[in-house]
Amino acid sequence: MQVLPTLAADTPVYDRLAAQLSALLAGERHPIANTAQFAAFLFQELPALNWAGFYMLEAETLVLGPFQGKVACVRIPLGRGVCGTAAQSRQTQRVANVHEFAGHIACDSASNSEIVIPLIKQGRLLGVLDLDSPQLDRFSSDDQTGLERLCQILLDGTDF
């Protein structure tokens, strides 16, 4: 498997992605439209992804939202898997090897690493952004910072 470089958050790459995302979402505030565009944008622009999408919170369960990639798990309870852990803890989960994560939910056996960012607006948990990669240790701390920045653009520009 070819190993592709990760993107540093402080490089012009994340600056470019932030500018492109801002332009992409400009003038549209609908949550389904914006999360669908954002998932497609990340899947197209970031190297070495095999899934990019959202799980939105309904009661105590994350429910599949807009995504790009293979079919996925539809419902994830809070506290289960990487997504449920990120949602319950309200902290980004960056997992270098998902096969070593206790309770990992394998929607796609080709996924080897994952980053999940909780979406929190005005203190309210809305859901999570989930990115999977077939590459081990795909997501760096710089990716985390850059992706959290992009999620803030989504949150600021969307009426959730």
- Largest sheet: spatial strand order: 3-2-1-6-5-4
* H and E string: HHEEEHEEEH
Low-confidence stretches: 1-5
Question: What's the structural domain tally?
Answer: 1
The largest sheet is: 6 strands, antiparallel
Q: Estimate what percentage of residues fall within beta strands.
A: 25-35%
CATH topology: Beta-Lactamase
What is the overall silhouette? Answer: globular
CATH architecture: 2-Layer Sandwich
The helix content is 25-40%
CATH class: Alpha Beta
Cα separation of the termini: 39 Å
- Radius of gyration, taken over Cα atoms and rounded to an integer in Å: 14 Å
- Average pLDDT taken over every residue: 93
Number of strands: 6
Domain GAF: 50-152
Pfam families: GAF
Family: Belongs to the free Met sulfoxide reductase family.
Protein name: GAF domain-containing protein
